[in-house]
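The methods section describes the discrete structure representation at length, but only in general terms. What matters is that the chain and its backbone geometry are given together, residue for residue. Nothing conveys this as quickly as seeing an actual entry. For illustration, here is how one protein appears when written out as sequence plus structure tokens:
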Amino acid sequence: MAGLAESGANPDVSLLYDINGLAQDAPRWLDRTVAYVGEYGLLAAMVLLVVWCWWSVRAKGRRDVAASLAGLVWAPLAAGIAVLVNVPIRGFVQRPRPFRAHQGLDVLVSGKTDFSFVSDHATMTMAVGVGLFVVHRRIGLVGIGLAVAEGFCRVFMGVHYPTDVIGGFALGTAVTLLLSPLASALLTPVMRAVEQSERAGLLIRPGRRSPAEREALLREARTEPGGSEERDLAA
């Protein structure tokens, strides 16, 4: 991998120069903005997206909110696990940062001394985005879009090759989806136990429903297995 990085004929390197070249042509204020967004801003946006998804799932008040919120808890946990999985990958591949192997790059952040493959930022954001998509399709698509934006920013900033980003996307997606069944089996009982708690359960239990919302949930229950739970839905 390190050998490929040194080849100017490598499409990965060519794309790196094309994207990073946008930073060289951009005004300094835009470079500083992208650097901040790519380093911190999009990670913070993913946190806010998780909170938004929690509120949305809880407000809907479906029959098994605990199971949905277990999937939501899994999203950031998957991101953390994926980053840990990346530690031995980086040590095995040992790909240097692009600015160490190539001249003429506009590097927008300093202090990057670790290896390049794969990108932690791309891994984390895609893991959260895919985890959100499993729980809530529309919010998940926003999360995946932010992850793609994060990947673009990392190359624009001159700190990663495009394949570092693609590898991060693949790693984050794989960890989230492959471990999702196990995570659901472990986290769902925990969330149901929290739901039964008088105080902590307020984080899971929906607020009091309006008559229209109760009627809509009752109609949904009649068309799905488990319609005997209608009285719980109407509570």
Q: What stands out?
A: Residues 209-235 form one domain. The chain has eleven helices and no strands.
